[in-house]
Design goal:
The complex is a heterodimer. In chain A, 72% of the residues lie in helices and 1% in strands. By secondary structure, chain A is mainly alpha-helical. Chain A has a single domain, classed as MetI-like fold (Orthogonal Bundle). In chain A, strands 1-2 form a two-stranded antiparallel ribbon. In chain A, helix 3 crosses helix 14, helix 6 packs across helix 9 and helix 9 crosses helix 11. Chain A is flat. Chain B is mainly alpha-helical. Chain B has two domains: 30 residues; 252 residues, MetI-like (MetI-like fold, Orthogonal Bundle), CATH 1.10.3720. Chain B is built from eleven helices and no strands. In chain B, helix 1 packs across helix 11, helix 3 runs antiparallel to helix 8 and helix 10 runs antiparallel to helix 11. The longest helix of chain B is centred in the first third of the chain and has 39 residues. Chain B is globular and about 70 Å long. Classes of the chains: A mainly alpha, B mainly alpha. Chains A and B meet through helix 3, helix 4, helix 5, helix 6 and helix 9 of A and helix 1, helix 3, helix 4, helix 5 and helix 6 of B.
C-alpha cells in the first residue's frame, strides 16, 4: 500500500490548480491595497527628508545652527539665523504640561469606565467621548480663543490670584496681558488628547484578567486597593502606550495650538507667556514664504523634526508592547 | 465594550466584620474617596460636553438659519457659508470615493490573507506610522507632491488625495476589525461547501461585515469633514466665490463640480476667519460655522450607530 502515496497518485485525487487559481487575482488586488500604505510612508519619508535637508545641503547652514535659540529667518532684517530650539522647546513644553493635566484625568476616566461605572453610566459617558473625538481641531481652537484665552487674561491679570505670594509673581510676568500662552495651549491640548488616552487605557484595563480582580478581592482588599496594587501595575504598559499616543497627538496638533499660544518665537520662560511650537510656526509662516528660499527650507526642516518625533513614538509604542507580552 | 465582565463590587462594607482592625477603616475611607473621584471624572466629561453644546447652541441662535446655510458670504452683512459647506461635502465625497474601496480591500487583505510574516508587520508599521504623522506634515507632503512636483496647484483633487493618505490607515483598520468580527464558522461552512476563498469572502464574509463597514465609513467621514491642517497647503485657503452649478464641465476650474479647482472647506474657513480677525460679523460667522460642524459630526456619529444597529438587525434576522 506504500506506493499509493506516490506524487502521481495524490495529484490525481485533487484537480490541478488552474490558471486563475495560480494567479489568484483577488489576493493580489487586496495585497496592493494594503501595501499601498507602505508606499505612502516611503514617499512621505523621502519627500520630507529631502526637503528638510535642503537647509543644510543647498543653503549651507551648519547643522549646529538649528540648535541655537535665535530665530531670524528674514533676509531683510540683516543677519539670518535659523535656530529651531525655541520651537522644539515650545513643542516639548506644551506637550508635557498637556500630558501632566490630561493623564490623571484620562486614566481616572478609564478606570471609572472599566471598574466603577454601572452600565447606564457607561452608556452615557462612552458616546460622549466619541463626540469629543469628532469635534474638529479648529473648533477646539476657536473655543480656546473665545473662551479660555479671555478667561485666563481676566482671571489671572487682576484680583485675587495676582496678590498671592508665588503664583502672583508667575501671573504678573510680562506677556500675560492677553492670555495667549503656553498654559492656554496645554489646556486646549489636554482636552483634545483626553479621548485618545482614555480609550487606550480603558482597553488596557479591560485586558487585565478577571481572576486578578477576584483574587485580590478574595484576599480582603477594597476595590481601590485592587486598582492601585493589582490593576494599575498589570495594565501599566497599556497605560504607557496611551500616554505616548497622547503625546504624539499633542506634539502634532497644529491649528488649535496656533490659535491660542500667541506665536512668539522666543525660548519660553514661564507657563504664562506666549510661545511658538514647530507646528504653529509652520502653519503661520508656510504661506508667507517662497518655495526654495532658506526661510521655507527651515520650515521643511521643522516638519522633518516632527516626522522624526512621530516615527520615534511609533517605535516606542512597539517596544513597550513587546515588553507587555514578556510580562 | 465587553459587557460580560462584571466590575468589582465593593467588598469591605461598613456592616462587615473587619479583618484588619484599624487599618481597614482607613483603606475603606480611601476606597470611598477614590470611588467619588472616579465618578467625578465621568461627571466632568459630561459637564464639559454639555457646556460646549449649550455654548454653541446659544452662539448659533440667531445666526444659523436656512439663509446662513444656503447663501454666499457677504462683506456687508452676516451672509452665509454655502460655498464652503459645498466644498466640504464635495471634498468628503471625493475622499471617500478613493479611501473607502482601497481601505476595504486593504482590510480584506489584513483580515483574510495576511500571514504572520515580515510583509504583514511592515504594513502594520506603515499603518501606525501614518496614523501618528501630524496632519500638518501630511499637508506639507501634499504640497510638495501634488502642488509642486505634479504641478497641479491648489486643487480639490490634491486635497482629497492628501486626506485619503491621511485616513487610509483608519479606514483599513476599521474594515479589518469589521471583517474579523465575522465568526470563523461562517468561513468554514462556506469553504466546506466547496466555495473558493474569494467566493467565501465575496458572498459570505463581506455581507456579514456590512454593519461594521458602514460604521467605519461614517466614522472616517466625520474625521475628514473636520480636518483642516491637511487642506491648508493642498486644497488652498482662499476667498469663496459664488458657485455656478449650471457649469457642468468638470475640467473647467470655474465649475463647482470640478476637482481641478481650489476648494476652501468650512473648517479651513473657520481657521482663515479667526486668523484674519476682520469683519464686524466674524465672531457670529465662526460661531455659526463651528456649531454647524459640531451638529454634522453629531449627526455622523449618531447616524453611524443607528445605521450599524439597523443593518445588524436586518442581516441577522434575515
Amino acid at each position: 500500500m506504500v506506493h499509493l502515496a506516490t506524487p502521481d497518485r495524490r495529484a490525481s485525487l485533487r484537480a490541478r490548480p488552474g490558471f486563475r487559481e495560480r494567479i489568484d487575482l483577488p489576493r493580489r488586488v487586496v495585497f496592493v491595497a494594503a501595501a499601498s500604505m507602505i508606499g505612502v510612508v516611503v514617499l512621505l519619508l523621502a519627500f520630507i527628508a529631502w526637503q528638510g535637508l535642503q537647509l543644510f545641503l543647498k543653503d549651507g547652514i551648519p547643522i549646529t545652527q538649528i540648535f541655537s535659540a535665535e530665530w531670524q529667518p528674514d533676509r531683510m532684517s540683516g543677519t539670518v539665523n535659523f535656530g529651531l530650539l525655541p520651537f522644539i522647546a515650545g513643542t516639548i513644553f506644551v506637550t508635557v504640561v498637556a500630558l501632566v493635566i490630561s493623564t490623571p484625568l484620562s486614566v481616572g476616566l478609564a478606570l471609572f469606565l472599566s471598574e466603577v461605572a454601572p452600565q447606564w453610566a457607561k452608556a452615557i459617558v462612552q458616546p460622549a467621548l466619541e463626540i469629543f473625538v469628532g469635534i474638529p481641531s479648529v473648533v477646539w481652537g476657536w473655543l480656546g480663543l473665545t473662551i479660555l484665552v479671555p478667561f485666563l487674561s481676566d482671571t489671572f491679570q487682576q484680583g485675587l490670584v495676582v496678590s498671592l505670594p508665588v503664583l502672583g509673581e508667575v501671573f504678573r510676568a510680562p506677556g500675560f496681558r492677553t492670555g495667549f500662552s503656553w498654559l492656554a495651549g496645554s489646556l486646549v491640548l489636554s482636552i483634545m488628547i483626553l479621548p485618545t488616552v482614555t480609550s487606550v487605557s480603558y482597553d488596557a484595563f479591560r485586558a487585565v484578567p478577571q481572576e486578578l480582580r477576584t483574587g485580590s478581592l478574595a484576599l480582603g482588599t477594597t476595590r481601590w486597593q485592587a486598582i492601585r496594587h493589582i490593576l494599575v501595575p498589570a495594565a501599566l504598559p497599556g497605560v504607557l502606550t496611551a500616554v505616548v499616543l497622547g503625546m504624539t497627538r499633542a506634539a502634532g496638533e497644529a491649528l488649535a495650538v496656533q490659535m491660542v499660544i500667541g506665536s512668539s518665537p522666543v525660548f519660553p520662560r514661564a507657563i504664562t507667556q506666549p510661545l511658538s511650537t514647530l507646528t504653529s510656526q509652520i502653519t503661520l509662516e508656510m504661506g508667507n514664504t517662497v518655495f526654495g528660499e532658506p526661510w521655507q527650507d527651515a520650515l521643511w526642516t521643522m516638519s522633518l523634526v516632527l516626522l522624526v518625533i512621530s516615527i520615534t513614538s511609533v517605535v516606542l509604542v512597539r517596544v513597550i508592547n513587546s515588553r507587555r507580552i514578556a510580562l | 465594550m465587553s459587557a460580560g465582565a462584571p466590575s468589582i463590587d465593593r467588598q469591605a462594607g461598613p456592616g462587615r466584620p473587619s479583618l484588619h482592625g484599624k487599618s481597614s477603616r482607613g483603606s475603606m475611607l480611601a476606597d470611598r474617596v477614590a470611588t467619588a473621584v472616579l465618578w467625578g471624572t465621568g461627571a466632568f466629561v459630561l459637564l464639559l460636553l454639555g457646556a460646549i453644546i449649550v455654548h454653541f447652541a446659544m452662539a448659533a441662535w440667531g445666526v444659523v438659519s436656512p439663509s446662513f446655510v444656503l447663501s454666499d458670504p457677504s462683506d456687508s452683512d452676516l451672509g452665509g457659508i454655502f460655498p464652503l459647506l459645498w466644498n466640504s461635502i464635495y471634498m468628503l465625497a471625493l475622499t471617500l470615493m478613493v479611501s473607502v474601496p482601497v481601505g476595504i480591500l486593504g482590510g480584506i487583505y489584513m483580515s483574510e490573507y495576511a500571514g504572520d510574516n515580515a510583509v504583514t508587520s511592515a504594513i502594520r508599521f506603515a499603518e501606525e506610522a501614518i496614523s501618528s504623522v501630524p496632519s500638518i506634515v501630511v499637508g506639507m507632503f501634499g504640497l510638495i507632491l501634488f502642488v509642486d512636483e505634479l504641478h497641479m496647484g491648489f486643487t480639490a483633487l490634491g486635497g482629497a488625495l492628501a486626506l485619503t493618505m491621511f485616513n487610509l490607515p483608519l479606514m483599513t483598520r476599521l474594515a479589518e476589525q469589521a471583517l474579523r468580527a465575522v465568526p470563523q464558522d461562517e468561513r468554514s461552512a462556506s469553504l466546506a461547501l466547496g466555495a473558493t476563498k474569494w467566493q467565501t469572502i465575496r458572498h459570505v464574509v463581506l455581507p456579514l461585515a456590512i454593519p461594521g463597514l458602514v460604521t467605519g465609513v461614517i466614522l472616517t467621514a466625520g474625521r475628514v469633514f473636520g480636518e483642516a491642517a491637511v487642506l491648508l497647503f493642498t486644497a488652498g485657503i482662499g476667498t469663496p466665490t459664488h458657485l455656478n452649478f449650471g457649469n457642468l464641465d468638470i475640467t473647467n476650474p470655474a465649475s463647482p463640480w470640478s476637482p481641478f479647482r481650489p476648494a476652501t472647506t468650512l473648517s479651513v474657513y473657520i481657521y482663515k476667519l479667526q486668523s484674519e480677525g476682520l469683519g464686524a460679523y466674524r465672531n457670529q460667522i465662526v460661531d455659526g460655522s463651528a456649531a454647524l460642524l459640531i451638529a454634522l459630526v453629531l449627526i455622523f456619529n449618531l447616524g453611524a450607530r443607528f445605521l450599524g444597529r439597523v443593518l445588524t438587525r436586518r442581516l441577522t434576522a434575515a
